[in-house]
Amino acid sequence: MKSTSGVGIFSIVGRILKEFVKDKRTLVILLVLSLFAAGFDISIPVINQKLIDALIKSVVSGKPFTEWHLAAVALAVLSITLVGRSLVNAYGYRLFERATKLEDDFRDKGYEKYLNLDAFYYHSNSSGQVISRIERGGVGFYAIVHDIVGQNLVVPAIYFVAILAILTLKSPLIALIIFLPLPTYLFLVRGWSKEVYEIDRRAYDQFELASREQYDTAANVMAVKRFGQEDRELLSQRRIRIAAREIQYSAERLWNKMDMLQTCLAALGRAAVIITAGYLVITKEISIGEFTLFLSLQSMVYAPMFQLSVLFPRLRRNVARAERLFQVIDEPIRIFDPKKAIELAPLGRNILFERVWFRYRENTPMILKGIQVEIPKGAVTALVGRSGSGKSTFVNLLIRAYDPTTGRITFDGSDIRTVTQKSLRAQIAMVSQEIELFSRTIRENISYGRENATEEEIRQAAEMAFAEEFIDQLEKGYDAVVGERGLRLSGGQRQRIGIARAILRKPSVLILDEATNQLDTASEKMVHAAIDRVMRNQTSVIIAHRLSTVMHADQIIVLDHGNVEAIGGHEKLLQKSAIYKHLYDLQFAS
Prior knowledge:
Oligomer: single chain
Shape: elongated
CATH superfamily of the largest domain: ABC transporter type 1, transmembrane domain
């Protein structure tokens, strides 16, 4: 994490507050509540001053100050205190409500942006890191709006101005004595808070390292046990935490320095006020009631001002969190729908790759080079080739995870860049090598992407994928939760849930990316039979390293370093394609 500069702080806080003030009604209500609350709060020391002066005058003059007078003053103080506290609570509730809504809005913006970004971003950034940025950024937004600005800047500023006005009117000398040390204090605290922030940042990095290692260890805990490395992992955690604590201890020592500075300034200020105001009492320039008023107002000014030693580091820390969330929100969307995007109808004729070239970034090698192929409706098209030949990239372009660098891909003549992404992907179902399952029930995982499916349709899809047998054996059946990434199921079971999900979707195009890798031979044959039956008269694209799974495809496309080496049926390619013949010989040599 980079250090957040002063300019960066003001820019980010300004951007947050710009959103905050859009709700004009709430802003006015908060301002009115804070002004009245401050007025009621500050009136208490003023009333005390008047009471003390009245009591002294009564004693000196012999004029009685009756119990009714005392009761009236006490009732007034009680009423003002209760009303003032009610206003403070109302202000706090309104501020909390607005701050939490703003926090949720920005979290939603970050999450929405993340869901709409392209595969480039997903491959370049850890999903855990991005979600952490969204969560921590939301916390940062709340802290900036509610804790820092709302409670510890705006309200103290109102008190500061009001008390300065009162003191200036009553005694400019006392006002000068109280406020004179504050600029020096703010200057020192600002410098020290930057140092504290840098120390906290280093400590945060260490704790983040500890968390990352813990997550890594937890994800591979069985490997730790198999290799007997429990002591090593525990020792590694302890070392990281010790290093983090040592950094924290240096911050704590700096906090102690700031605390001593605050204590000294408060004590010196109080002593100066006592001496000066006391002298003014002796010379009869002010009353004893005003003496107590000055001491009370000094405390009311110093208490929130001394919170700035905590406030500045917190502001920097939370601005850094908000900045990382803004980085997600501001990430440009590369794959987007044009303004006049059309809805894609179910496939009627064919899919065409028309002179498609593709590379991931500028100044990097082309992954696909001039691909010119047709995928007819209802045909089974297989993609084969060595690892790195471009098979997965071919499919990713088909679902528009990326856009071609040059050339175009069409569905029935419509460039897929001119249709809505939602309608394009509604026509496609994909079963990949690693099935993406959510930690939800089997029913929810099968119906994912078609939430309005009936129970009968879900069970039929499971039966067609040969998943019903193992589902019925589970204690909760279709209501069984599959666990994180489906780890409570075997690899073959996960594959069959994924296939059932694709069957239920009833797509125009079915993509199988090494979809039967995790199945035993018997299950593979059953699943292929089910897929062939269900997907009859629909376009299918199959990626496979094992030629046994694609030998009966209507056409086989052989890719080699991003080029189409050959297209044809199995028998034709054995004669025509050196790469296909080589792969066949390797797999069927026995």
